Structures
1.
Amino acid sequence: MSEKIGIIGTVIAAHGRHYLVQVGASRLQCVTRGKKSDVAVGDIVKLKQTSPDQAVIESINERKTLLYRSDQFKSKLLAANVTQLFIVVATEPGFSDDLVSRALIAAEAAGVKTHIILNKIDITESLPRTRERLSLYSGLDYPVHAVSARTMPDETCAALKPLLNGHSTILIGQSGMGKSSLINLLVPDAELATREISAALDSGKHTTTFTRLFALDAETAIIDSPGFQEFGLYHLSEGMLERAFREFRPRLGNCKFYNCHHLNEPGCAVLAAVSSGEISPMRHALYQQLVHESSQKLY
Ligand code: GDP
Ligand code: ZN
């Protein structure tokens, strides 16, 4: 067979260094050249087809956005070209503020818009306390949408579908928050599609922990990423961090020292806002932690 060059497709699933790329109506199993593994779900790639259902990724088109997390040693791509992030939290079990805030910071740094989806509002005992906790984020102008995937599926769809139109949206959340339930509501036949993707990706090993993209129409996609416990942001520099905290931005020019780190400097406008209660101590503590992580980066 003659090799076809210059085919363009979208990466719809990634597992290790194996990728599934959608090209029109067909899906090709792809690998990268050599040991390169810098391809992410959502990437638009150029392929060289090597068999009817296999191809090599030759190059990655320029990305609109790139979301990733990292530890001390390396960064891990979450998804490319996403335009918005849905953080799924719930009344029960309790969610982690640390994870929510880290996801918000990652999205800010990548130029990705965020919505917080509060699921399981039918569990009314925990609702006031959960709303109270989320007021920190709504106060920073992150929209919070209250839904119940299980008890109000139609209302939940009606609330979320309009937000998705024309966007590539990644959903993240700790396990148990109801992310799969939401995906099943928003993506027709999501479970079947996932089984097909899994089979095509690793020929029957039934991997469930991989990121996948569901195209709803030509302009709209939903990306489901497996739950994770750690959301390291070692890759963000101090300069990126201070701007990724929305509430710091209006104060950035106002510190006594132009190169203020907003940690313990005299005359710091950010610390003054923490003292006066305008900036949440929890958010400033996270900023401190992230500056520390940033300084520990080994790559
Ligand atoms: P995931 O781990 O985030 O993907 O969460 P799942 O979608 O698997 O849901 C976790 C559990 O929460 C399951 O038992 C769901 O039935 C339940 N659940 C999902 N949505 C709701 C909801 O709106 N209300 C209640 N009460 N339970 C829900
Ligand atoms: Zn300062």
2.
Amino acid sequence: MASKKINLAVLISGSGSNLQALIDACARDDFPARIAVVLSNKGDAFGLTRAQKAGIPTEVISHKDHDGREPFEAAIIKALTPYAPDLICLAGFMRILTPHFINHWGAQRMINIHPSLLPDYKGLNTHQRAIDDDKDTAGCTVHFVAPEVDSGEIITQKQVPIHPDDTAETLAKRVLVQEHIAYPEAVERVAKTLLPQ
Ligand code: GRF
């Protein structure tokens, strides 16, 4: 890698507010990454508009156009490869990925953001489950992706309090503020390990 920035491929399925946090971070001269491409499995994901506004190339690969996970993932690999990504960032990408796809990019080359303090609350509905369990703290985790869903080495976590009157929606908003801090921090940390010293 000759440059002082690594290439990111950001995979989304929806709003892309975490993508926006990465776009904003990458706008800094001293941030050690640039977004080479944003890929969505949904053509109407608002994150695609965010990417286009920032002048970032976009790709849409719908799982509905492919007969099974393997052809879907092969299409993603074909679409991303020309952008030479050094790190794949899952940012609200709502498809489960096979070990083959994860390993294709090399060891520790894919990261994800999850809206809970892993290993607690893997999977969906994290905020409601934390409220139902009377927890007083919630948060988010950025972690390397391993074949088992929502596992893999933790890069960073941020905590927020759960208030007695919280709903899943109010808690999600509080956690999301921290996600937008955690994801760029994690990318910066990983990128520095990938760049030549
Ligand atoms: C975030 O809560 C993230 O933790 C989860 O999916 C959501 C994506 O939100 N994996 P956004 O599309 O980044 O706004």
